[in-house]
Write a structure and sequence with these properties.
Helix content of chain B: 40-55%
Number of strands of chain A: 9
CATH architecture of chain A: Alpha-Beta Barrel
CATH class of chain A: Alpha Beta
Largest sheet of chain A: 9 strands, parallel
Strand content of chain A: 5-15%
CATH class of the largest domain in chain B: Alpha Beta
Distance between the termini of chain B: 49 Å
CATH topology of chain A: TIM Barrel
Strand order of the largest sheet of chain A: 5-4-3-2-1-9-8-7-6
Number of strands of chain B: 14
Radius of gyration of chain A: 17 Å
Shape of chain A: globular
Number of domains of chain A: 1
Strand content of chain B: 15-25%
Shape of chain B: globular
Structural class of chain A: alpha/beta
Oligomer: heterodimer
Order of helices and strands of chain B: EEHHEHEHEHEHHEHEHHEHEHEEHEHHEH
CATH architecture of the largest domain in chain B: 3-Layer(aba) Sandwich
Strand order of the largest sheet of chain B: 3-4-14-9-10-13
Order of helices and strands of chain A: HEHEHHEHHEHEEHEHEHEHH
């Protein structure tokens, strides 16, 4: 079982839901990313989602676009992100780390070299936003051979057939994009999320995470009642942005947000 | 030549692949809308009433067929092959772009979509989209990079006159590629009522095939016109390539005529060796951007890099996947000409033939001039004159230190 699978099994045994924070690697400066990952874990994160900066993040809203731009000012590339994971693993071998990004940086490195280096660095799973299963066969094979979970997205527009097909290929967990829109969208409709999650659960035993549009403790709490995992991104990245000129304050500030989300989810 | 088998009608495959290129590299939210678009497109392209409506629009609204003109005086000056021009500059709105927007807007209406979005670089596709939206009474939002808005004010005003909302894109390099990202984000958010009119043969399947099919009217007409006017088909075709829609429109109906040589001309900007250019086929490498795999301008980390061309319409880091395939297969040749060479051809055609070409099209003219001088006077080059140069007055004047 992968680290992700183990983590969900432990949580289930304790009757808890997973909290998955997202930050962009290298934002606002590359030096603090590994420390921030440890901060997130110490405040209650179960899995870390680490964004790989890309010049053309077409599924991301303005907040995460700007995070990519800040990181790219330091030329933070996929190799640098893998180095950060490797460094994180020196102190933490248990918390799953999922990379989230776009295909082109992987494509240019080559699927096999990427998968080798990701496995070596300690990457647990990967979400490639612009790779639906139709285009993902080859990548999935090389990742699978190295026990890295390829996590697929499901969306409000996914039909029953697609849900079935994607669930049959998915590893780690299934990531439900809760709104039609980009990351950081604001109009989450809890009832429709609940309906769709029921459809998804009918097709898979895998844990289901929900992300895109979860902005505060209240929404996190509501979503955690329906899902196995809550992904929070733009809300954290906004805080990073607000403190971009005082990076020494970011860790404590993120810990504060995570603690409040943790509390909201655990008491839901 | 790698293969002598017929190409027309064989590509893309069912999944939108042109060999290793093309495909469907989009977020999950768009997979179902793209499937619905594919189905609607195939249904309407086999529907006689739809095709009749399209033909009528092309004839009476766009003004097709566009003529072919034998540039005798310029050909004589060059002292080689005879140059013929396919006059897409004479279309309504002044460029080939409208061939595609007329088709996609009809499709949007038949799919009961009430809102049109488009991306634009130079503004030509934005104007062509705003034009058809006005005519069909559809809401229209055009995404345009803030940098491009500053250098194409006249087209921004045209779009607004036509009732479109022009939204400035401030992310990334603030140019065409970022406008495309932003249009994709809009589409993901508003998939239910919105039709995204992509202006070139890029993007996810079925766009590269669909835009090619709408633009192929250029080459289909040319085959008939050349027979009538010159008594035979040309020895060579030349067209400029940014995303590559005017080029594929001319090339596609000729792909199986193996004795017709094909040249796509990219923007070499300040020169391919300077890095300041927009020539992914000549100097880039394959990658994935905007929904398809194709040749890209990118750095060692796979980040897309900024391009440079005097012509905003060629200032794009990718290229249609079918061109990538045509390059690898050897069926078409891809070359590049610099800003200076394009400007020189711009002036020549203006002064010698009384036709002011778009700066984009001037790249094709510049290469045709070079090619002509290596050929005999009884040989023929057909150049796609994809647009007129009125929109470029400010750019050319500024380059020459003149304020207008």
């Amino acid at each position: 079982m992968s680290l992700i699978g183990e983590r969900f099994a432990q949580l289930k045994a304790r009757g808890k839901k997973a909290l998955i924070p997202f930050i962009t690697a290298g934002d606002p400066i590359p030096e603090i990313t590994v420390d921030l990952m440890h901060d997130l874990v110490s405040a209650g994160a179960d899995i870390i989602e680490l964004g790989v900066p890309f010049s053309d993040p077409m599924a991301d809203g303005p907040v995460i676009q700007r995070a990519s731009e800040r990181a790219l000012e330091y030329h933070v590339g996929l190799r640098d992100v893998l180095d950060m994971v490797r460094q994180f693993r020196q102190l933490d071998v248990e918390t799953p780390v999922v990379l989230m990004g776009y295909l082109n940086p992987i494509e240019i490195m080559g699927y096999e070299p990427f998968a080798d280096q990701a496995a070596d660095a300690g990457v647990s799973g990967i979400v490639v936003v612009d790779v639906p299963p139709e285009e993902g066969g080859e990548l999935q094979q090389v990742l699978h051979a190295r026990s890295i979970d390829q996590i697929f997205l499901l969306a409000p527009t996914s039909t029953k057939d697609r849900i079935r097909r994607i669930c049959s290929l998915a590893g780690g967990f299934v990531y439900y994009v809760s709104v039609k829109g980009v990351t950081g969208s604001s109009h989450l409709d809890l009832q429709s999320v609940d309906d769709k999650l029921k459809e998804i659960r009918a097709e898979t035993e895998l844990p289901v995470g929900v992300g895109f549009g979860i902005k505060d403790a209240q929404t996190a709490s509501a979503v955690s009642r329906m899902a196995d995992a809550v992904v929070v991104g733009s809300a954290l990245v906004s805080r990073v942005e607000a403190l971009a000129d005082e990076p020494e304050k970011i860790g404590a500030s993120l810990r504060e947000i995570i603690s409040s989300l943790r509390h909201a989810i655990d008491t839901a | 030549m790698a293969t002598t088998e017929n190409i027309i009608g064989t590509l893309p495959d069912e999944r939108g692949h042109f060999g290793p290129y093309g495909g469907l590299f989009v977020p999950e939210t768009l997979m179902e809308p793209l499937r619905a678009l594919r189905v609607a497109y195939h249904r309407f392209m086999a529907d006689e009433a739809f095709l009749r409506e399209l033909d009528e629009d092309l004839a009476n609204y766009v003004g097709r067929p566009s003529p072919i003109y034998h540039a005798r005086r310029w050909s004589r000056r060059l002292g080689g092959a005879q140059i013929y021009l396919k006059r897409e500059d004479l279309n309504h709105t002044g460029a080939h772009k409208v061939n595609n927007t007329v088709g996609q807007a009809l499709l949007a209406r038949h799919m009961s979509k009430t809102r049109i979005i488009a991306e634009t670089g130079a503004g030509q596709h934005g104007v062509a989209s705003a034009t058809v939206a006005a005519r069909l009474g559809l809401e229209c939002v055009v995404y345009m990079g803030a940098v491009d808005i500053a250098r194409q004010e006249a087209n921004v005003y045209r779009m607004r006159l036509l009732g479109a909302e022009v939204r400035a894109v401030e992310s990334g390099s603030k140019t065409l590629k970022d406008a495309l990202n932003e249009a994709m984000r809009d589409w993901v958010t508003n998939v239910d009522d919105t039709f995204y009119i992509i202006g070139t043969v890029a993007g996810p399947h079925p766009y590269p095939a669909m835009v090619r099919d709408f633009q192929s009217v250029i080459g289909r007409e040319a085959r008939e016109q050349m027979l009538r006017q010159a008594g035979r088909q040309p020895d060579a075709l030349v067209a400029c390539v940014g995303g590559g829609s005017n080029a594929i429109g001319l090339f596609y109906p000729y792909l199986d005529d193996r004795d017709v040589a094909i040249y796509g001309v990219e923007a070499a900007g300040d020169g391919l060796d300077t890095g300041q250019h927009a020539a992914p086929l000549c100097a880039g490498r394959p990658g994935v951007l905007h929904g398809n795999r194709t040749y890209l301008m990118e750095d060692k980390d796979g980040q897309i890099i900024e391009t440079h061309s005097i012509s905003a319409g060629l200032d794009y880091p990718g290229v249609g996947p079918e061109h990538a395939w045509l390059k690898d297969s050897g069926r078409a040749n891809y070359v590049a000409v610099t800003d200076d060479e394009a400007l020189s051809a711009f002036h020549d055609l203006t002064r010698i033939e009384g036709i002011i070409p778009a700066l984009e099209s001037s790249h094709a003219l510049a290469y045709a001039a070079k090619l002509a001088s290596t050929m005999r006077p009884d040989q023929i080059i057909l150049v796609n004159l994809s647009g007129r140069g009125d929109k470029d007055m400010h750019t050319v004047a500024a380059r020459e230190g003149i304020r207008i």
